[in-house]
Amino acid sequence: MYAQGVRLAGPWSLAFGPAGHEIPLGPATVRSQTHDRWIVESTHQLADLDLVDTVLPLPDLSGVGRRLSVRSMAATAGDVRVVMDLPLWLAPVLIEGVRPYDFELRTSMATVFARSHGWALGLESDPLPSTLAIDGVPWIGGGWSGEARSLRVEYALSLDPGRVVRLDWVLWGGLLATVDANPDAGRAALASRESWEARNERTWTSWRTDIPKLSTPDDPALSDAYRLAADALRSLYADPTPDMAGLVAGFPWYSDLWFRDIGWMLPAVLWLGDVDRVRRTVATAFRYQAPADLGLLGATAGELPMQLSAGPVFLFGTSDTTLYFPLILQRLVAHTGDASVVEPFRKGLARALAWGNLKVDPKTGLFTNGGEVAAIKKAAIDIGRVHYGIDAFDTTIWDSADRRDHAIDLQVLWAEALDAFADLDELSGGRDAPPLHQRAAAVRAEIASRYRWPAEKYLYDSLHTDGSPLAHVRPNALRAVEAGIFDSATAGALLDRAAQPDLSTPWGLRTLSSSDATYDPIAYHEGQVWTIATAWAAGASFRAGRPEAGVRYLDTIAARVLEEDGFASECYRGDRPEAFDSCFLLGFSVGPFLTTIFEGLWGLRPALRSRTLSCRPRFPASWSSASLTGIRLGGGRLDLGWRPGAVTARWAGPWPLMLAGERGSVQLDPDAERTLAVP
Fold it and tell me: What does the pLDDT look like over 35-81, one tens digit per residue?
């Protein structure tokens, strides 16, 4: 259980029976399980007891509600002992696996509180516990402090034959200040328990009604996975405190705000229509922009945070996080047509650009990655010793792989960011747009000329400052294809190389070729398969005019989403389609998949400042139809239907919208239907 970026407790287990002979709820007792995004319910058979266990997030509180319904099938009345074991944790997930050992516990009326190092939880139940124990030692309640690992709470239930008896819990918490400010919040949540399911279901029903609907009759698995992935993205929404908004990176290990991951998620959030979530998330990122160099946090002036949770607890020190957010603002203007959304961030953008300029090597002219972790260690050397779970050589997207000094995907991102800085500057009437665009073009030219690897018919993964290459075959090079840097022939050759079995597997793209001397199928960034890399391959294929390949990669992701019942793992082994023991849901596994459907498969590019939407679909020759309806753009909604040679569009918006294709354009007047000819 997580709340406000802190792991409260877990696993939360239940058992039944006399002391020393408890039978736990689990695989041996379960008869069935149903679930949706807002609820998990399982039925159990235990001797002569029928049990229903219901768990769901609380509608108005950072926490979890749980209900146990017990029905006795015995012929006579009797009692049953219910034992709840709750391992205490109360540690922020900044470094997962680290937990405190000292706690303060107290009881207040029917609530048990635990606190440690600025974090707290509250446990409310109905009926009241019969006994309490801390690490097996009976506790009569009141106040207690010391070393502790778990809290045991026992209940004695009197059962009549055929009658259902209920146990209800609320487990909630987060920041100590949040809990102390409203210690009765758990009691209030418990009082509203009868409405939990209905209110949660309304939230999800509203979400599913409002997002665009995809139909792919020739590939129904793709549209099924789209719906599940959209739900998965929504399940990551988080507002740890009133001034923080965003999406957590993933569960279970990354349940706070990681802004690199958010940078890959927000384009999909925009396409699904939640402009407010994007605005608030961008505001959170800039609110915690580094005002100066902060060595111990790995920050340099103007940098945006890598990681943020309630407290606040935050770290900086990445090469790429800051560069995603001018791109998000550029998209926000394009999707809404509203240039004013940029105004609150003008100073922050200037500081971010200054930060980026300092990362450019004056000798090579390329953006530099690496050295951030070394700087943190240097700053901390006189304070204490810190062991990092991953030896991060640099801080590109593959942190633990040494890709210094000029990783190719960082150059692509820098070029894209320069263009975004230019476009945003132009909106305010600034004069820096032309030279920024020129710099972006120069970076693209450098990529096209300096990263070619003739022997592999591919691109080098990185260049050192002396010009020597890092000769590793990775999927990151496909970001240059997706960005349109190469002509169609070169792009096709690069895609052909990436499709070879040393890099491409039936379950996705490896982070490193299996023929590389350093390949390891279970190494995080040196051989495992990552879903985001498969999305890059899909996007690059669509950009290069290879729709069959693009859909094949999308189908690869869709198969994982469907097999995992609506989740998308962080990564998989490189030698077999087995999810690695990391996150069972990762935001940048589902986000790029969704974005590629809109921008790659459908070829959509909004430019609502000029009331224009580009539509250049890339469907396989074998398909006969597809539709995408309810697309929210600039206060209106757009429905698209495709058949070979034509896109039929209906626009319900406040002004006419120009739909621009490769064979001309059509004007969509409000509530009118028009057809656009497409190849």
Answer: 999 999 999 999 899 999 999 999 999 999 999 999 999 989 999 99
Query: How many whole angstroms separate alpha carbon 358 and alpha carbon 300?
Result: 10
Query: Average pLDDT of 539-566?
Result: 97
pTM, entire model: 0.96
Distance CA 256, CA 248 (A): 5
| Residue for token pair 């239940």 | 14
- Does residue 107 contact residue 131 with C-beta atoms inside 8 Å? no
What fold characterizes domain 607-677?
Maltose phosphorylase, domain 3 (2.60.420)
Please report the pLDDT score of residue 96 as a whole number: 58
DSSP 304: P
Average pLDDT, the chain: 94
As beta bridge partners, residue 508 has 505
Closest CA relative to residue 455, chosen from 443, 440, 430, 473: 473
Q: What is the pLDDT of residue 110?
A: 84
What are the extents of the domains in the chain?
2-202, 607-677
Q: How many whole angstroms separate alpha carbon 384 and alpha carbon 438?
A: 46
* Angle of helix 259-271 versus helix 321-336 axis, rounded to 10: 10
Which CATH class, in words, describes the domain spanning 2-202? Answer: mainly beta
Rounded to whole angstroms, what are the CA distances from 634 to 2, 306, 350?
Answer: 35, 30, 27
**Helices and strands (DSSP H and E) totals, the chain:** 16, 41
